[in-house]
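Hi all, a correction to my earlier message: I attached the wrong file for DUF3800 domain-containing protein. Here's the right sequence:
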Amino acid sequence: MRPAQKFPAGLQVFVDESIHDRGSFIVVAAVCSKADVQKQVVQGLLACGFDPSRDEFKSSMTMRDNPAARELRQRLQLILRHCKIALAVCPIAERAILATHLATLLSSVDLPPDTPISAIYLDEGMKRTNTEMPSGAVVTYGCDSRLVAGIQLADCAAHLAATMLLEELGIVSKTVPASTVYDGQDGEIELAWTLWASIRYALSGRTPVGEVDAYGFPEPLMNPFGLVVSDRCSEALKTAAERRLGTVWIGCIH
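and the right structure:
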């Protein structure tokens, strides 16, 4: 078995992208955590019958008739709930400058002032660019996601967000039984909505942006933890990103 990657103390950021020709866009996910998500992902792989030295989660894994892969995806989604997720959206034409969008994204995430980013790990598919990452952070390009298992979380997060955008654009339309979200309820519910619901707290920033009620309390509508949408995105994609990701509702959904 390969030796586990050792991480420095402080906030760690794991980065991967999800590329979608159908929508002509890329989603970059930056998963931020102080916890040892490396250990949690490895434990998830083992629990699902995978060998962490050889196997890894990939959003391209066949899920149909593959219960182990579906369980692993669910376990990663549970881990993501305790992380923070920042997203960048850009057209496929900007694939070579994903690291530049990442730098812009990380410069604007909604972190407390006393929470510096200590380390950034980028998947091996992302090219280095002449851009400044957060001061003091150790940046590692070309990471193998089997060694830096947190990148598997970023893969999962990027795919979830991309699926939401594909649905918002009307490119895909998938449903799941409503009972998977609401116990005992009949009918179907949008898959993209369930994905959003599973990670909405991870997507949320700290600042309320909703209206204030009669008692002076803001409604539980928050700014995103981090969102950058490239100016070169189509107007339809910009609108979809704003509608799906531009604010985050953290109130009751039941």
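Sorry for the mix-up. Residues 135 and 236 are 35 Å apart (CA to CA).
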